[in-house]
Design brief:
about 450 residues; alpha/beta; Rossmann fold; Alpha-Beta Plaits; six-stranded mixed sheet; 14 strands; about 45% helix
């Protein structure tokens, strides 16, 4: 099927005033017009190296009153959409540079994608990490085939060391930026979503500092159908993209250095190409709370059996938070771009999300320290079908009358309504029951 563009002028206008790239020690590429043909060429070239991930109808649709299709980019080999841009970038390098090798300096999804695909292409690859990098990430990069070197106490130390090694040995220092080649690779997500879901009304992408997928995919989608709404979602704690769009240039707020939980969406806005495309082609950018992101992660785990990190869940969080009421009854695709949630965060995120979702609650009450009183409390909990997660008794520091015991109980309920029913039943029997507010 041949698709005729009606948006070339819009794309041309979006990039007409982009300045030429500064002399950086990374990939030296010209900022040129990102055409639909470039994105199509990228899709053809990388098709054998990345997954064409499914875009599936979700059971969450009924809960939020719209047809939701989830584009599952976390199913890529390294668990991230960054593979698309990285593979096209590496395949576009001159053969001489491929022979010499490339070097990166971070433990991000971008670096893991470089480690894997460079190894697959038989390009020597070096990953420089700082001492605080999680051992699991170091092991993963080594398993992909990269030479991993730990250097320095901070990310800045490892970056300086990587640049020095690149200069001394002829390696190409790669960092995530918005060259036309990289954006074209990321834009293939938009192509696939359009092919997989007919009659789309809107597509939701993660935004934030590294908004290359949002910008590249917007270019593809607006070319194919200008009526499709393209929406970006970022965190209220790090509204990097909104600040940059308002200022008219990428912000350099030091407070936005990558937050461990948020990943790339909390980073500094990295380029004018992405920013200009986003400003011209993206219909809306909204911000969501951390609480909404955590509940979104919980919904994806329960309904899709998918362990997703904050970056991957932030698009769905806009629907969870009710930030896009205009999409009710519409057909909406949500890009789940990353699933690299570290294990030590998984338990914390789930526990916090259950509390925020009113499904784990804690209360304390005082009962007589007599045989049978504890069993009466447990009978009430059993009758109300509350699952006891933890129960403690405090006798020594109770300030009420003698021969009483304070009981602190943590229980799991079905939902907010069930929690309210349990609360009323306990207050009827124990009027002094105190609930711990979340």
């Amino acid at each position: 099927m041949k698709i005729v563009s009606r948006n070339e002028e819009l794309l041309r206008e979006a990039l007409s005033c982009i300045p030429q790239p500064s002399s950086r020690a990374s990939l030296a590429s010209c900022n040129k017009l990102i055409r639909f043909e470039d994105i199509s060429a990228a899709a053809f070239k990388i098709q054998s190296g990345v997954q064409k991930t499914p875009c599936m109808y979700s059971r969450l649709s009924k809960q939020y009153g719209m047809d939701i299709y989830l584009k599952k980019e976390f199913l890529q080999y390294t668990g991230s959409v960054k593979e698309r841009g990285v593979l096209y970038l590496l395949m576009s390098l001159p053969q001489e540079q491929q022979r010499k090798g490339v070097i990166v300096a971070s433990d991000s999804n971008f670096s893991m994608a470089v480690a894997y695909h460079a190894s697959e292409l038989r390009v020597p690859v070096f990953v420089i990490v700082c001492a605080s990098t999680a051992p699991a990430r170091v092991r993963t990069c080594r398993d992909y085939g990269a030479m991993v070197i730990s250097y320095g106490a901070t990310a800045k130390d490892s970056q300086l060391h990587a640049r020095r090694l690149a200069q001394e040995n002829g390696y190409l220092y790669l960092e995530e930026e918005d060259s036309a080649v990289y954006l074209s690779g990321l834009g293939t997500v938009g192509l696939e979503v359009y092919e997989q879901v007919p009659k789309l009304d809107a597509v939701i992408f993660p935004a934030g500092g590294h908004c290359g997928m949002l910008a590249g995919s917007a270019a593809a989608l607006k070319h194919l159908n200008p009526h499709i709404s393209v929406i970006g979602v970022e965190s209220e704690s790090f509204p990097v993209l909104q600040q940059s769009l308002k200022a008219g240039h990428p912000t350099d707020d030091q407070a936005c250095n990558n937050h461990h939980f948020y990943g790339d969406v909390s980073g500094v806005c990295f380029g004018s190409n992405s920013l200009q495309l986003t400003g011209k082609l993206v219909d809306k950018v909204v911000a969501v709370r951390e609480e909404d992101i955590l509940i979104s992660m919980l919904r994806l785990l329960e309904y899709e059996r998918a362990t997703i990190d904050a970056e991957g869940a932030i698009g769905l969080a806009a629907l969870v938070a009710g930030k896009l009421p205009e999409l009710k009854g519409k057909r909406v695709a949500v890009v789940i771009c990353s699933g690299n949630l570290e294990l030590h965060l998984l338990q914390q995120c789930i526990a916090r999300a259950l509390t925020l979702d009113n499904r784990v609650c804690r209360f304390s009450l005082v009962i007589s320290d007599c045989p049978g009183d504890m069993s009466k409390l447990l009978e009430i909990l059993a009758r109300e079908e509350a699952r006891v997660l933890d129960i403690k008794q405090e006798r020594t520091f109770v300030t009420s009358e003698l021969f009483t015991v304070q009981v602190i109980c943590t229980v799991e309920t079905r939902d907010k309504i069930h929690t309210a029913q349990l609360r009323n039943a306990l207050l009827e029997r124990y009027p002094t029951t105190a609930w711990t507010e979340r």
